[in-house]
Amino acid sequence: MNIGKLTLQGKVLSAPLAGVSNRPFRVLAIKARAAMTYTEMVSSEGIIRNQTRTMEMMAIHQDEQPVGIQLFGAKPEVMKEAASITVEKIGPDLIDINFGCPVKKVVGRNGGAAVLKDLSLTEDIIKATVEGAGETPVTIKIRTGWDESCPVFEQVGKIAERAGAKAVTLHARSRAKGFSGSADWSAIRKLKQAVSIPVIGNGDVNTCRDAQRMLEETGCDAVMVGRAALGNPFIFKAMNDYLETGIRPDPPTVDEKIEMAQIHARLMVEQFGEEKGVVMMRRYLGWYVKGFRGASELRPKLFQVTTIADMNDLFAEYQRTW
User: Fold this and answer.
1) With 60 as the cut, is the pLDDT of residue 39 above it?
2) Core vs surface per residue 23-44: b (16+ CB within 10 A) or e
3) What is the DSSP letter of 228?
4) Residue 291 class from Cβ within 10 Å (0-12 exposed, 13-18 middle, 19+ buried)?
5) Do domains 2-245 and 254-321 have the same CATH topology?
6) Domains in the chain: boundaries
7) Is 101 assigned a catalytic role?
């Protein structure tokens, strides 16, 4: 699939996830054959103010590419400047605009999905970001609309194409639905029929068969995986292999999951230092042991670890016991 001048290998992308999609997560996703990764969404206001935390979130390296930086904001002139700074200082493979985030602290600043309530503003933001990004492709990520009563995804897709965006990702739920209920894949099919730029489908892609069904039922160009990858970077290779061969791979064993969690933890320590990195790693450990026998006893212990050694000791004890 081509997104502007960018050519992706594979049809399974790793979604931008707030509080999750840091460098270690992105590195593991790329090693597992994700076609692309994204940073956590980044505030355009933070970029133009050169805020340290914001700039740290955008730092990328070759071993996690192709990678997109996802921006959010409600002011076209700020988005334009932020895109220009991002391209000049960071050099991502693309810039993605978040029009889908349902979180209150984002929509409360008229960012994320809130922009879908004003389609004129939506167009102005896309045009400004495209102008600021220059030759770097700009894409957008949207929901079906603010709520069920006002689906605007087809209109926004056409606006995006007209404004110069090179692809659109649709999470097939409204902002009001959050992550509840079932994603409406028919919306992805309708969007694909409405625009000529690539469409990436998102929502309820949890298994290899889900990925195949979404591609078949909607005609979308690629799928984006979010929550199903938590504690499970194996999913990208599994899905790509299944799409290429039709053979469903065996799920990872407990030992393989533990080994991956240990690799992940080492990357977190390399990135953030042991004290901070291990504390940040705790939430991922909870995801890695999902489905383990005795997980209800293991998980609280993992949530208390403060060093890599603590974590390794707990896993070793678990492997001896179970």
Assistant:
1) yes
2) bbbbbbbbebbbbbbbbbbbbb
3) G
4) exposed
5) no
6) 2-245, 254-321
7) yes
Which amino acid, residue 136? Answer: T
Read off the tokens for 315.
């896993």
Give the SS3 label for residue 160.
helix
Question: Which segments within the chain are labelled E, that is strand?
Answer: 2-3, 6-7, 12-14, 37-38, 42-43, 67-72, 94-99, 138-143, 167-171, 199-202, 222-225
Catalytic annotation, pick one of 101, 150, 208, 220 = 101
Fold topology of 2-245: TIM Barrel (3.20.20)
Could you list the beta-strand ranges (E) of 209-314: 222-225
Q: What is the pTM of this model?
A: 0.93
CB of 53 closer than 8 Å to CB of 25? no
Confidence of residue 107 (pLDDT cuts 50, 70, 90): very low
Q: What share of the chain is helix, strand, coil (3-state, %, to 5)?
A: 50, 15, 35
pLDDT in tens, 256-301: 999 999 999 999 999 999 999 999 999 999 999 999 999 999 999 9
Q: Do 72 and 38 form a contact (C-beta atoms < 8 A)?
A: no
The answer to whether domain 254-321 has CATH 1.10.1200 is: yes
69 is written with which tokens? 């930086």
The C-alpha atoms of residue 104 and residue 189 are separated, in whole angstroms, by 29
Give yes or no for residue 103 having a pLDDT over 60. Answer: no
Write out the E strands in 73-211.
94-99, 138-143, 167-171, 199-202
